[in-house]
Amino acid sequence: MEITFLGTGTSYGVPVLTCTCPVCTSGDPKNKRTRSSLWLRWKGTSLLIDTATEFRLQALKAGLQQVDGVLYTHCHADHVFGFDDLRVFSRITGRRVPVYGNAATISELREVFAYIFRQIQRHEDRPWIETNVVDGPFQVGQVLVQPVPVLHGELPIFGYRVGSLAYITDCSHIPPASLEMLRDLDLLILGVVGFNPHSSHMHLDQALALVSELEPKQTYFTHISHLLDHNTVSKTLPPRVHLAYDGLTISCP
Asked: What 3 state SS string does the chain have?
């Protein structure tokens, strides 16, 4: 399984507009963060988790050529506003691009992008999309996907488990039943916004405590704000725990 972090930033991105903090003005390319999304390749299947605001630029940089499905965590702007750029993938295949999410996410996608779903026949200048409400395991190509229900503040959203990889972002609380879905992982990808407690996201100590409980073989933090300098924070992390950065590609057994 090959995984590329297309983006690793929060909804503001890094640098943040108008901000002159040390991270926003840093020359380290690992401190330049577009909005968070993931590209996963396994068993001949190419999957996205979310289509971030900069999805087109992310896809060009990564060399993305194929999309067999999109797993949506929730319908917030930074996770879905690249949706229209899926049009290329429906145009070159002549088929609908299947997208997946919980009922609220799919309903909001259809509302926010109503101009796409009003089309009766396929229009080349609009994405051709098949929406799928899921609440349990489902198959995309040869890949079995397990939604992992978590809370983003008070909003129920999805993380996803694919094989021995789990991707959990924009999460403040993981219910006990979902914690059990996160055992025996080779790779955990977890959203961490900063150092201090947050009402709708994990902070660094909270995430490290979760890693200590779940004991994945490797952990990468994503959805990172301008509060975390890549080099400084990386030096403080325990073994097998890392900050991700835009464009990072890794393999998962």
From this structure: CEEEEEECECCCCECCCCCCCCCCCCCCHHHCECECEEEEEECCEEEEECCCCCHHHHHHHHCCCCCCEEECCCCCHHHHCCHHHHHHHHHHHCCCEEEEECHHHHHHHHHHCHHHHCCCCCCCCCCCEEEEECCCCEEECCEEEEEEEEEECCEEEEEEEECCEEEECCCCECCHHHHHCCCCCCEEEEECCECCCCCCCCEHHHHHHHHHHHCCCEEEEECECCCCCHHHHHCCCCCCEEECCCCCEEECC
